[in-house]
Known about the structure:
The complex is a heterodimer of chains A (164) and B (98).
Chain A: H1 6-21, H2 25-35, H3 58-84, H4 86-94, H5 104-115, H6 118-133, H7 146-161
Chain B: H1 3-10, H2 14-25, E1 30-32, H3 33-39, H4 44-57, E2 60-65, E3 68-73, H5 75-90
Antiparallel strand pairs in B: 1-3, 2-3
Helix pairs in contact in B: 1-5, 3-4
Amino acid sequence: MQDWKNPVHEDRNRGYNQFMSQLSRQQCENMMSMAMGTRESSSANAHGNLWTGQKSGAKSNSAVEEAFSSLLTGIVCDALANALGRYVLDILASNGLLDDSDNPKEFDRGLQSLFGNGASVLERIVVKDLYRKLSIPYNSDARFDYEKSLETAKEVCFVESRPK
Amino acid sequence: MSGGEILSTLLASEVRGDLLILFHKNPGLIDTVDGIARRIGRTTITVISDLRELLQLGLLKQKRIGASEVVFLDRARDREILESVANHLKTVQIGVAK
């Protein structure tokens, strides 16, 4: 009998661990607070800045980029595992589908080739979860574009990371 | 029913995707159709046809408890269904340009 939990759990945690190792504890706390949609500033972070440990500019942009990519990879793994089971997620991971999870065009192409029309259902599940984590309102009835939805979520991450 | 057909049935709509997530995250869930609709933030009328499809597939089952008709996940059938989906996916090439 296939072990449905361990391989994928490790795979998913790899991204998470990589992400966590790049951030200081304060940054992690701030990231969490951003994800929860809390915008109050604390005494340790008077400007509510997400990346106080780093200088502004390209470096902090790449940190936000990486944080977003890790968040997205985790959500994609959860969505696939919760919808179709961990065994299916294992197969998709071993086929390299998850390598492109932060590249919407390639990821969409991979999903389309495997799931056909079902790809958009999986993408909606991913976006819904991502928006919930970033406190962005999600409308099921609106026209759906995976790439644009991710751009919106990324913009929110960047806006939240700027000094107020 | 082939693995590909099962996959199409499972992912035929956003509501069906929400139902899959709900029952896989809560495999012991037993609730009425109204309760299930509420749990995924929808109305009964918008989920009823998708629930019916999943009942027909055998992923979900229905039984009477007192005066209520309740729906729950058939775990054994769920395993079978996901295995056949997995076997189907093993045979499909991912069209990702590298």
